[in-house]
User: What shape does this take?
Amino acid sequence: MQISQNSVAAFHYTLTDDKGQVIDSSEGRDPLTYLHGSGQIVPGLEKQMEGRKVGDKFNAEVAPEEGYGVHHAELMQEVPKSAFQGVEDIQPGMQFQGRGPQGEINVTVARIEGDTVFIDGNHPLAGQTLHFAIEVTEVRDASAEELEHGHVHGAGGHQH
Assistant: This one.
């Protein structure tokens, strides 16, 4: 069976950056399981998963536009340290949830200069080309309940 719209697929992966540094991996864990065509993985990878079958091993390169997006300078902001009430030791790399015009937004502390904190509302992988090493471990038809709910149930998926 091949991966297609509304199939459930499971795969092991290693994600690296342009320098070959490992960003994330399923090594030592269960494979990642998703409902194909539901937008649960980045679009560029989902396109490259189409038509694959159990046992397929391949490398997938995903451009920022089909991964976590391009880096948007307007999502970089300066805020006073006083905006972080209750946080005593703010450090670069810390992540916080804030409110923006479109609702909640996750931000990462980029740097601190004096009483000014520079935050970045871009996804941490925005602007980066993603390099995946993939091994497909399972492909099956989604159940009616999975299709109705829009996600995988059972092993490797959501439990109700």
